[in-house]
Amino acid sequence: MRSPDSPAIVFDDTTLSYRSLDRRANGLAADLRSRGVGRGDLTPLVVRDGLDLPVSVIAMMKLGAPFVPIDDLWPASRLVEMIESVRPAVVLHGTGVPAGSLPEDVRLAVDARTLPERDREDFGPPAGMSDLIYGFCTSGSTGAPKCTLNVHRGLLNRFLYMTRQFGDSTDEVALQNSRHVFDSSLWQLLWPLTKGARVVVPRRGGVLDLSSTIDTIDRHGVTTTDFVPSIFNTLVDLVTDEPGLVRRLDSLRTVLIGGEEINSRAVQRFRAMLPGVQIVNTYGPTECSIGSVFHTVTDSDRESIPIGRPIDNTYVLVLDEDGELVTPGTVGEIHIGGDCLGLGYLDDPERTAAVFRANPFPEIPGDRLYRTGDHGRWRDDGILVFEGRSDQQIKIGGVRVELSEIELALQAHPDVREAKTIARGELDARVLIAFVTCGNDVSDAALREHARGALPPYLVPKRFVILDRMPLTPNGKTDRKALAAMADTPDDVVADLEGTEREVQEIWYRLLPGVRAGSSDGFFEVGGDSLIAQRLALAVNAHFGTAFTVRDVVRRPTIASQAAAIRGVHDTTVASDEMAHDAMLPADIVPATSATVTGTPRNVLLTGATGFVGGQLVHDLLRGTDAVLHCLVRAGDPAAARARIVANLREYRLWDPGFADRLRAVPGDLGAPRLGLADDRYWHLASVVDMVLHNGAMVNLVREYGAHRAVNVHGTIEILRFACSGRTTPVHFVSTLSVLPDGGVEAPAPASSRPDDGYSQSKLVGEWLMDAAAERGVPVAVHRLGEVMPHSRLGVPSRDGLADLLVRACVRLDVTFRSEVTLDYLPVDRASALVVAALERGETGYFHLRQPGSVRLDDLLDAFRKAFDLTDLPYEDFLDRLRSAGEEDRDLSRVATMLPAAERDLPALFSELATRCPAERANRLAGDAGLEWPPIGGEVFHNYASAAVG
């Protein structure tokens, strides 16, 4: 190992270095060897999230024992069948996996977190290139799944090609985005480890949550990952719907897409939003070591996206029915040869021989070719284009599916006489629909339950149609065209609903073809899945202008409950439980020494330096004090971190070259253990910093509490842990008045305080953690800010403030509207001045940073009416124009989704909370510091408008 202490695997708050990963794998390998596992022994791997997967895979590779990933969520019959087919000496199962269905005499539990670390032992000679490395279970046409076997040569060839294609940089951060039972998980997990890079293993819930995926990419600075097109397309829809998410994906460099046909429009939309990311279309069956053909998408791929060219040491042939090569432009069957080929199927020589055929072409190395069953053609430029399949094998969500396997499983039901399955929908919207004839009355619920007990989740049809008899063609075969026509005919109609329920019901119907559901039917019970749930959330947001997430669909699975949420009936019970749990400060965070607060600090650690408030704090601390400022910034190195800080200051017209000598950029991660810092850097920083100003946070007023936890809650815990490392360091925490939705004084929030939005909930938990730290002896000050607005003199607005977005929309459209709306208005320079004053004086306790009184939105807009000659419209007409323009402009669309449909609901959007929150302590602090400002009014508004003009 070149860098044994470098991070190798990250999962939650745990990071394994290369040394630790290797030594834990040694320990597990020794245990497996003692139980009889050796070279060539297939070993089922039944794991879930976390560190168990990488440690287990590497342990088996040390022994030369091929691993077979198994899904514990499979029906017990399928799981047992696959394990028995391997005849293992050991079944390795991870933490959190129920062991009841696993054979007791051979099962071995592995918990990578507690594995003893051992020095490398002599595990025998390493595996050779022709030795087995893994087996993956895929859908089978006979009703039984197939175990597809591959060798080391194929995987190594893929990795070497990727390194040549994408570089050998050690700063790569790969997201292991695929579940372990799909072969794409292997490159995400192992390729980065071949070059000293880092792998992030996400914690998976029971439902696909692309918002959580984006959080993970942002938190860890992920540079590369993989999506199947169906999920990628939905990700593009989500980012289009919430343009602010684009910045949270800016660490990406490469996105691989594969598993099914790719949607060129979605890819080009993504490339337009993130032009620095290269999108690579990949093609290759499991039988050929993950992927054999690559194509980097370009601007010319607008109508369709080809498969591409074969990777190194791989050969692709397009043959006609007689096994002869076709000319360019002619469609034939794709065959693959070369180093990528696997060995075939476990204990199934007949099936293996059917698709692994003798190679009759002497110019192609190797004695076999794999017959893919896919059709394609060569373009004149030598690039391969996919042209579909002719058999019953399809792709659903990137997973290869044999329709006959589903049909045989359904026919195993005692009352089912015949079963046929078809797929409806295009590409990423494709769903499975089953048609059955029955001897007795059987409900679709009973059929669904039977299917769930016999098939993996991705093979369970979304809809069941019970027929008296199957339609037949004139020659007596099942008429699949007639079945397709029936698929578009609804089931027995459920009574239509009214109002919001009716609108939600219609969205369900669009997403679940032919399904009919009443107000109390469960979304997942009538055929919904996690991907369709993500689309449902996006469709609800587009229709109602809400901020629905996939978690909302899970928590509110019925039409009635979703309609209630859309009407504004909040459900805070789940968040409350999570908040109470998160508010428990870890026991290890205890002051090592008693702290003495002695005025102006010499070294300040600042978080959130690249935001609106953070930029002003950087300016004021460097301009008004002599302190050295250490700014924690998510970046790959100090130069990149410094560049982000300076760029932010320039954007807000705050940069001064004289700041350079006392500005220290610290590349790290607020949401990571030890702030993402190496041990030596962490302890050095802890030894010199004598004040922490914790301003960093994720701010998204439409996202739920869970989306804010990693940065706003776990990050606050890490800051407090840092403050107690070595000497005890005072902490100033920047919070928000919105933790007090009913108002309150400058004191800890009452136990009854429960703000509605996820951001405010996360800041409230942060305050609870600060309170707990203060009780243990950490000097703490909490600064609750009102609505932070542009600098009173410079007038430069924030990127994402609601009022600022609305003002920009008015200027873009050349129109505005009159209203009686009032709002908080705290200029950012005044907020920052108060925080710095408290920091210089060593203050502790709570401060409400707000502007006395409120201002009229109309008075603010007057300044822009004059500066830009804006025309007034009635509010409803303004909103219509905004929505129309938003169809072609994401920024305007974002504002349109925030504004209510009726003018009477507009005041609720702009809080007057500041008027209900006394600020005696903050006012006294301002007086002691000599901070006096004129009232908010004409001059401040004029400066704001002038900045927009200039």
Account of the 3D structure:
With 950 residues, this protein is of the alpha/beta class. Among the domains are: 15-127, Rossmann fold; 393-487, ANL, C-terminal domain (GMP Synthetase, Chain A, domain 3, 2-Layer Sandwich), CATH 3.30.300.30; 499-571, Non-ribosomal Peptide Synthetase Peptidyl Carrier Protein, Chain A (Orthogonal Bundle); 600-785, 3-Layer(aba) Sandwich (Rossmann fold); 789-824 and 852-915 and 935-950, no CATH class. It has 29 helices and 39 strands. The strands form eleven sheets. Strands 29-28-27-30-31-32-37 form a seven-stranded parallel sheet, with helices on both faces. It has a five-stranded mixed sheet with strand order 11-12-13-14-15. It is globular, with a radius of gyration of 30 Å.
Strand share of the residues? 15-25%
What overall form do the CA principal axes indicate? Answer: globular
How large, in whole angstroms, is the Cα Rg?
30 Å
CATH class of the domain at 600-785: Alpha Beta
How many alpha or pi helices?
A: 29
Please outline what is shown here.
The chain is α/β, with parallel strands linked by helices. About 35% of the residues lie in helices and about 20% in strands. Helix 1 (about 20-35) packs across helix 2.
